[in-house]
């Protein structure tokens, strides 16, 4: 929504007493009709019922202490927070609670790389070794930056190997790495791939990666509550994460962590990012071009199309078809791909999504540009991807069926 439209925010909180869990029993619903006198709005109570019916069973099944759903519909925002950000403090989740978003961070890294290209600092069709001379003579003479942003560099591992503890060791590892597949022939989801792209983009912009994000990208995006390193005066907003064994955990720093999965953000900021990807906020021209460029379709993966980190499906889509793009085989395996020639220009009539996880957090973002409809789902418990996608699908498809007020 344009910045000129800044309405009063009305917050409604509801206490649900029927759930026996001490953490799931407290359900906070914050409905935010951004424009008080706008055209017909969906019924807030109907939205509440829809989101409750999807989120409450999910939280109960996986023992999720806290979660929040943010919805953008026709330029209006709604936030539905549930439960607590910490079992110890029992602070309620709010729209400003900071969550780790895991691999959704990669979409920002891809945006930064495209921003560097628009600014004339790099060319994404160039080979990696052109920007990292220490990799000359390696497999990266044949891998371009687009391959890094589309998981098609070869069979890089999911994680940076444990033996790699600094950038010098990382470069030695990359120098020695021999791919099993030629670039552009297989999709292998890999943190080292997008991490390397982030290193190059920041280098070409003359900044460290954290500075490029926190001082260049986030401010231009209007994201005022997003961090790689959460400052001390914001730690009270930082949710405590819980792993699958219900142990309290937060993200440990590591090589390429910032570039691949390190962002902590709020539902407000992440939903705004979704809206910018749907071209709903005025942005500097270079940044809008960069965001649009992340939605070019480069590879046909069969069940979906690989953009720059973002993944898209034809819309409308059945749930079972959507879930085929989130199987263990697709996430952890090597999937043959076909290059789209020429690359597919961004289209509005698509389902676009990305999942993200850390040891103690789980997140999902999905949106349908043609419907001006988007959703973020954040929680402070790690749980599987398919139920995340299923809940997101239930909410977004349910919203399309709600009557206007």
From TrEMBL:
Gene Ontology MF, one: beta-lactamase activity
EC number: 3.5.2.6
InterPro entries: AmpC, AmpC-like, Beta-lactam-related, Beta-lactam/transpept-like, Beta-lactam_class-C_AS
Signal peptide: 1-38
Keywords attached to this entry: Antibiotic resistance, Hydrolase, Signal
Domain (Beta-lactamase-related): residue spans on this chain: 51-395
Pfam families according to UniProt: Beta-lactamase (PF00144)
Catalytic activity, as annotated: a beta-lactam + H2O = a substituted beta-amino acid
Keyword Signal tagged: yes
NCBIfam families xrefs: bla_class_C (NF033085)
Family membership: Belongs to the class-C beta-lactamase family.
UniProt name for this protein: Beta-lactamase
Native source organism of the sequence: Shewanella mangrovisoli
């Amino acid at each position: 929504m344009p910045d000129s439209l800044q309405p009063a925010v009305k917050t409604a909180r509801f206490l649900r007493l029927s759930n026996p869990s001490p953490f799931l029993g407290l359900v906070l619903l914050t409905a935010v009709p951004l424009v008080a006198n706008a055209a017909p709005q969906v019924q807030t109570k109907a939205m509440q019922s829809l989101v409750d019916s999807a989120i409450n069973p999910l939280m109960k099944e996986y023992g999720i202490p806290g979660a929040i759903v943010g919805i953008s519909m026709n330029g209006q925002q709604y936030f539905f927070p549930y439960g607590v950000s910490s079992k110890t403090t029992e602070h309620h989740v709010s729209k400003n609670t900071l969550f780790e978003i895991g691999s959704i961070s990669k979409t920002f890294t891809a945006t930064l790389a495209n921003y560097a290209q628009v600014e004339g600092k790099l060319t994404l069709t160039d080979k990696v070794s052109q920007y990292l001379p220490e990799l000359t003579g390696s497999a990266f003479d044949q891998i371009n930056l687009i391959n890094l942003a589309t998981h098609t560099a070869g069979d890089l591992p999911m994680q940076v190997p444990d033996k790699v503890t600094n950038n010098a060791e990382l470069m030695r590892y990359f120098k020695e790495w021999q791919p099993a597949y030629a670039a552009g022939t297989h999709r292998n989801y890999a943190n080292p791939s997008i991490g390397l792209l982030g290193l190059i983009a920041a280098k070409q912009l003359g900044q460290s990666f954290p500075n490029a994000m926190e001082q260049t990208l986030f401010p231009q995006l209007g994201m005022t509550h997003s961090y790689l390193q959460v400052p001390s005066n914001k730690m009270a907003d930082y949710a405590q994460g819980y792993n699958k064994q219900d142990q309290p955990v937060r993200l440990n720093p590591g090589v390429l962590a910032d570039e691949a999965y390190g962002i902590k953000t709020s539902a407000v900021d992440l939903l705004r990012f979704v809206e910018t990807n749907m071209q709903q906020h005025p942005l500097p021209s270079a940044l809008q071009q960069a965001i649009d460029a992340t939605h070019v379709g480069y590879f046909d993966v069969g069940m979906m199309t690989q953009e720059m980190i973002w993944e898209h499906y034809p819309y409308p889509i059945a749930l079972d078809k959507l879930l085929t793009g989130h199987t263990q085989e697709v996430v952890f395996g090597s999937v043959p791909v076909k290059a789209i020639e020429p690359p597919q220009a961004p289209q509005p009539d698509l389902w676009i999504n990305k999942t993200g996880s850390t040891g103690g957090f789980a997140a999902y973002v999905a949106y349908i540009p043609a419907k001006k409809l988007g959703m973020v789902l954040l929680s402070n418990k790690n749980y599987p991807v398919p139920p995340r996608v299923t809940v997101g699908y239930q909410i977004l498809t349910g919203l399309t069926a709600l009557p206007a007020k």
